Automatic annotation (TrEMBL):
Complex and partners: The basal body constitutes a major portion of the flagellar organelle and consists of four rings (L,P,S, and M) mounted on a central rod. The rod consists of about 26 subunits of FlgG in the distal portion, and FlgB, FlgC and FlgF are thought to build up the proximal portion of the rod with about 6 subunits each.
Principal localisation: other
UniProt cross-references to InterPro entries, sorted A to Z: Flag_bb_rod_N, Flagellar_basal_body_rod_CS, Flagellar_FlgE/F/G, Flg_bb/hook_C_dom, FlgE/F/G-like, FlgG_G_neg, LlgE_F_G-like_D1
Protein name: Flagellar basal-body rod protein FlgG
Organism of this sequence: uncultured Sphingosinicella sp
Family listed: Belongs to the flagella basal body rod proteins family.
Occurrences of domain Flagellar basal body rod protein N-terminal (ranges): 6-36
Membrane-spanning intervals of the chain: none
Lineage of producing organism: Bacteria, Pseudomonadati, Pseudomonadota, Alphaproteobacteria, Sphingomonadales
Length: 262
């Protein structure tokens, strides 16, 4: 029985260690543009049923609660918290923030589509709107050389003042992708996500329509990490780790005493 208690405590140490890593990643990305924090989720391991509730305890009586011994805990996954991050004004015409649901679409090097909330875009040498890693925004939009006063509307319409023209010219329209289960997207790093079977297929369309958020030019969405809450969670995780460690020490002491008395 003491060996079983030591095994249960070990699963607690493993789970709390994994949760601490999740918290550390959240705090590390507190200033990452468009970052969405993760939350560790746990579940109990299998129970060893010694007595089934309702089983006969005598000819006339039954057990009211039964007896089941747990075998520990495990972390089942990390749920992404998709709440809105704080907006900051940058006054850069190519900085975009999404107010509401939706993700920008970019073309990855392997030809697949990546999705991101980070709207810190810039222009490539060819005049295309790209991410900081050089991934092209989809649908592709090119800004002609010499264009001034680039304007991006809340509905994604991109226009600019071209040389020799008196009125702005529309260059294209930015579209946003929306997923039924955005928490099911696979995190790739580099502020990118990929579609999975759990996320569902992307519903692409005009910003501000069909549940998609609108765009705000000259702003960036910050991380939704609450530093105070993460620090509280870190202390809670540390205490839980210490308790499980003490459980192993106590179990070891019980085994030592049993060996000495035999």
């Amino acid at each position: 029985m003491t060996n079983a208690a030591m095994h249960v405590a070990r699963t607690g140490l493993d789970s709390q260690s994994a949760r601490m890593r999740v918290i550390a990643n959240n705090l590390a990305n507190v200033n990452t543009t468009g970052f969405k924090k993760d939350r560790a989720e746990f579940e109990t391991l299998a129970y060893q049923t010694m007595t089934v509730p309702g089983a006969p305890s005598s000819a006339e009586n039954r057990y009211a609660v039964g007896l089941a011994l747990g075998s520990g805990v495990q972390m089942t996954g990390t749920a992404r918290v998709n709440t809105q991050g704080a907006m900051s004004q940058t006054d850069n015409p190519l900085d975009l923030a999404i107010e509401g649901d939706g993700l920008f679409q970019v073309l990855r090097p392997d030809g697949s589509t990546g999705y991101t909330r980070a709207g810190n875009f810039s222009l490539s040498a060819e005049g295309q709107i790209v991410t900081s890693d050089g991934l092209r925004l989809q649908p592709e939009i090119s800004v002609p050389e010499g264009a001034t006063s680039v304007t991006i509307g809340a509905d994604g319409t991109v226009s600019a003042q071209l040389q020799g023209q008196s009125t702005p010219t529309e260059l294209g329209r930015i579209e946003l992708a929306r997923f039924v289960n955005p928490s099911g997207l696979q995190a790739l790093g580099g502020n990118l996500f990929a579609e999975t079977a759990a996320s569902g297929t992307p519903q692409v369309g005009t910003p501000g329509l069909d549940g998609r958020g609108s765009l705000r030019q000259g702003s960036l969405e910050g991380s939704n990490v609450n530093v105070v809450q993460e620090l509280v969670d870190m202390i809670e995780t540390q205490r839980a780790y210490e308790v499980n460690s003490k459980m192993i020490s106590a179990t070891d002491e019980m085994l030592r005493n049993a060996n000495q008395q035999l």
